[in-house]
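tool_log.txt
---
The assistant was asked to compare two proteins side by side. It first ran the structure predictor on the initial sequence, then on the second. Raw inputs and outputs are pasted verbatim so the downstream comparison step can read them without reformatting.
(1)
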Amino acid sequence: FLILASLVPLHLLQMQTGFDTVATYALLALALGYALSLERRMHAPERILSKQASVVAGVALALLVLISLKVAFLDEYTSIEAVFRTLHAKTASEQVTAIEASLARQGSFESLRMSYSSFLKGSLVAYAQSPTKATADSILARAHLYEGYFQKLLAAQPHDYRAHVNYAYLLLVMTGLGEDRVVDAKELITASYALSPGHPISLVLDSIAELYRGNIAKADQLMEAAMTINPDVAFTKEAAAYLARQKQQFPTISIVKIENL
């Protein structure tokens, strides 16, 4: 009963955080296996396993449940709590420690996306309030930390489309903060086209990269292509409006703010 009762809140927690549902399905398999064993006992009352074997099987089942709960609850909670600490850290060292803790789950794209997007959101607010070189340099120092995690993730999962576009967006933000990373961003965007041909996110990011290059005509062309694919989606509408504003104030380019890539 305890296993079955934990499935729904566990699944909802994961869907609201990292979308890592492996532990949910593991618990579901254990619950179904237990239900099948009960059914067999009902139809075959004679002992199927010896008493000693039953104890061993019970201990193994309990250990599997505990491991699944640790992965699903404790590791997930630790990661989420660390994300919040990155936003409220009082010193640079505290923030770096929180970032590393939020990314302790190696190979988890959702943990990385959630951590870096929260960091960028708070950092860009801070930069808007104090657009100084010191603020930009401080943000860039943390951005380099995230870049290392993106590189490790792509080395392990080279065909992950969302990892490519999120990493490219991070590099475009770094470019807006004064570190020219357009060439690296273009490489990731080009690779993303092969992974998901015609995806409007790739077109929008490519348009912004061309804007930073000063190629307004190409930026317009790419944004129009994105609008043709998804003309009624808020993401492409906001991106097109951003490009229109930047064209009016070019060569000054404000940092684009994109969430939930």
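(2)
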Amino acid sequence: GAAVIPGSLVERLAELPADIDAPAALLRISLQARVPDRPLPEAVLADGSWLMVEGGVVPAHVDGWRRQQLDTAPPPDWTGRLAQAVLKRWPERLQPDRRTIGGLYAASVLALACAVLLAWYGDPAPGLALLAPSALAAALATRLRVIGAGPFAPHKGRNRWSALLPAALDVALGLCAAFAIDGPWLGRIFPPLVLLIALRGRTPAERPRGLAMLCDRMVLALLVSVAAALDLAEPVLMLLALLFLVSDRFGGKAPAPG
């Protein structure tokens, strides 16, 4: 298992004989000091997600553990699948450390801001397309946090950024789509607003597979970007919103695969 023990307790090892079993002694000291403990799930112990790392073989164990985390079932969304593929392709460059994760979150926020500015200055199609790398950077950062936290972290490595960025992405998507529509401001904001409300009516897992794919904000942003380039943003947005609303009203939950 794993233990996070205050340094003052570790110092007690110096008071014990030299031939003691250090892990057992630390466990006994921790229990006596009532250090909070959390048992590992049986599944984690059985599938080897947690490894006891011994001296001299740390890199091999770390690399093997990371590969095992990335070889799990692919995420249901296309952004998550692409993020997982990128992490598999460049594992040594994308480490689950604070600097890398913070840089990815910063890149996501910067791309969001640039997307809105592009749409504001009359280029909504490139702005909408820029939302795709923003969504990917956020997915990479969140996935790296999950990997770095390990399988027994209380919140699986998620933080306020992983909760705020999806909402910010929706706001940016709505604004960029509104700038792609001509007419009064109320008429411009209405189609993307209806679409975003319809998207939040159900989770992607509760929708048919075709519509579930369109719930992916990276896919949706690229689709609306193409529509904006063809001056079809408004009808495409209304059609998508209608599809989601009709599906919510008359469709049932998508059957589980297999």
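---
observation on (2): The radius of gyration is 24 Å. DSSP finds twelve helices and no strands in the chain.
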